[in-house]
Design goal:
Radius of gyration: 18 Å
Number of domains: 1
Distance between the termini: 18 Å
Shape: globular
Strand content: 5-15%
CATH architecture: Orthogonal Bundle
Number of helices: 6
CATH topology: Arc Repressor Mutant, subunit A
Length: about 150
C-alpha cells in the first residue's frame, strides 16, 4: 500500500499543515498552537488542571511545561480548589482571556475558510467519518481486531 493512500498519512499531513498555520499566527502574539489550544479549553470559571490533559489528548509533561510557560507569561493563575485543596484550578487572567479571544477568532476563521471551499454535504460526511474513526481508536486494541 502506498503511504499517501493510508488514512493516517492523510490525517497527519492535514494536521501538520493546520499546526504550521496556527503556530505561524500564534508566534505573532508570542504564543504557540498548544498554548492557544489550552486557552480554548480552560472554562471561563476555571478548569481543574487534571481535566485539561485528557480533554485535549495532551501528555501531562507537555501540558505541565505549557502551563508553566503560560503562568510565567501572565496568561493563567493556579488556585487551590475551595472544595478540595488537593485539586488545582487553572484560571485565565485578563491577558489570557484576551489571547483566548484571539485564538478563537483564528480557529473560527480557519474553519470558515475550509467550510467555504468544501461542499456542505462533503463536510458533514467528513465530520461523521472522523468521529467514527475517533470512536474506533478510543476502543484500543485496534491491532487485535483481525
Amino acid at each position: 500500500m502506498r503511504q499517501e493512500k493510508t488514512i493516517d498519512f492523510q490525517i497527519r499531513g492535514a494536521w501538520a499543515k493546520i499546526a504550521r498555520i496556527y503556530n505561524a499566527e500564534a508566534s505573532n502574539f508570542g504564543g504557540t498552537m498548544s498554548i492557544g489550544y489550552i486557552l480554548l479549553n480552560i472554562d471561563k470559571n476555571g478548569s481543574p488542571s487534571t481535566s485539561l490533559g485528557p480533554k485535549m489528548g495532551m501528555e501531562s509533561t507537555s501540558l505541565t511545561r505549557s502551563l508553566k510557560k503560560m503562568e510565567e507569561n501572565g496568561l493563567i493563575t493556579r488556585m487551590a480548589d475551595i472544595g478540595d485543596k488537593r485539586r488545582v484550578i487553572i484560571k485565565l487572567t485578563k491577558e489570557g482571556l484576551q489571547l483566548r479571544k484571539t485564538s478563537k477568532k483564528h480557529v473560527i476563521q480557519l474553519n470558515n475558510q475550509l467550510r467555504s471551499k468544501i461542499d456542505g454535504e462533503k463536510m458533514e460526511v467528513f465530520m461523521d467519518v472522523i468521529k467514527e474513526i475517533n470512536t474506533i481508536l478510543d476502543r484500543n486494541g485496534i491491532f487485535n481486531d483481525d
